Amino acid sequence: MTATTTARPRVGRPEDERLGPGRTIGYGIQHILAMFGGVIAVPLIVGGAAGLDTADRALLVASGLFVSGLATLLQTLGLPYFGAQLPLVQGTSFAAVSTMLAIIGDDGREGLQHVFGAILVAGLVGLLIRPFFARIVRFFPAVVTGSIITVIGLSLMPVAAGWNTGNATITVDGESVANPDFASLPNVLLALFTFAVVIVLSKVPVLSRLAALLGLAVGTIVGLFTGAADVSPVANASIVALPRPFAFGMPMFEIGAIISMVIVVLVIMVETTADVLAVGEVVGTKVDSRRVGDGLRADMASSLVAPVFNSFPATAFAQNVGLVALTGIKSRFAVAAGGVVLIALGLSPMAAAVFSIIPSPVLGGAGIVLFGTVAASGVRTLSKVDYAGNNNLVIVAASVAFGLIPVVATDFWHAFPGWFVTIFHSGISAAAIVAVLLNLFFNVFQPGRPDDPNDFAAAPPLRVQTGEIRVLGEGGALDAESYEPDERTDGTRARETVREPRS
């Protein structure tokens, strides 16, 4: 008698594996939960800066969920020339937040219209320059991107603090008066409680990746009992509604806002390129220049469509790359299922209203961790930069300083032309411009490295730790956070540090 075995059909590419319906939906929801806090945080921040009421903030949240779902489907399933067809979740980018806040200023809804106009033009520019992006991306080495990411996190900390304290003044009968609830003890305690919940949950292995979302949920429940949360918007919201294009008015265009947003789009394209390469390494699949280009096209197309449906620039979420490495689930169809869930949530104003009732102190408590994590990610990137015998320390110092000027002195540039103020009042735009120009000056236009850099640039040599590149199982995929190209444009070459996998 001859024994027979049923061989499992081979999958052409790891990312094309098809799971059962239950597993596909379950893993898709897990991906959405891992990035959900980031998706809803951006519209809540921008809506608050624009002075929108609860209903309009709920509309922004619903729009963000809807566009993120569409963008995720485009990136994972793909169309001809669009989509990397990799397990990447697309969502609203934090990189644009500080620039959008600078554009809005004190103009409220009109400022929001300028934001949408700037995103439309910047998304189109990003789509058009995609074929030439390989020539541009080399001007964004780790010393530049690390400085920018650090500034993004630091420049958002005043937003978290403002959520905790509220505004110092309020308008009563057309007059500005002191806010009696400013930095009140109940609000600050609620923020600190939420912060503590997020920290504690971050220590629980099963819940650590959902710590921010669960912290928001627990904080809101406590807010319901203390009167800090109002559930009436949920009761008044409809269950299902189709998205309304240009619900906040037609976009408006201003040159300074457009230039600032184009800079943001370049940063987003660098971020997406890194995420596409990283997830390719984790999955163990071939990612060539054409596939990166298709991923960028999907990214820019999503950003171009986003303002039509009242949302903001989209980008691939790096935390989901880590989730792929952690779970070993490489199927792009599981992530696509998560995109369908996002679209369903975006079509329900009632679901969006649930998230819009989160009290500001609760957002502030979670925001301390969330925005601090962004800054820490920038510091981690900067830790990989070689500071020995070059002026990279000067690049970091100057770019971070210019990026924080708008935070510590809001009227610093007020005497300059309006277009200039719009650009440099955004910390990320200022940091990006200074970092790129100084990198060109020190590392590109002036070949070679000085034998004796000035005192400001002097730094002890960077010691390379073994295990900087680690193995993620039998596939030998590189750690997503440690991926670096061999060639840099900051005057150094990437070090190669390899160790044997653990038995």
From TrEMBL:
**Where, per UniProt, does this protein localize?**
Cell membrane
Q: Where is the signal peptide?
A: none
Q: Which InterPro entries match?
A: NCS2, UacT-like, Xan_ur_permease
Q: Where are the transmembrane segments?
A: 32-52, 58-79, 86-105, 111-129, 136-163, 183-201, 210-228, 248-270, 333-358, 364-382, 394-413, 419-442
- Segments carrying the region annotation (Disordered) are 474-503
Q: Does the keyword Iron apply?
A: no
Please give the PROSITE patterns that the UniProt record associates with this protein.
Answer: XANTH_URACIL_PERMASE (PS01116)
Its record classes its membrane topology as: Multi-pass membrane protein
Tell me which UniProt keywords the record has, alphabetically.
Cell membrane, Membrane, Transmembrane, Transmembrane helix, Transport
The family assignment reads: Belongs to the nucleobase:cation symporter-2 (NCS2) (TC 2.A.40) family.
What is the official name of this protein in its record? Purine permease
> Can you name the source organism?
Brachybacterium huguangmaarense
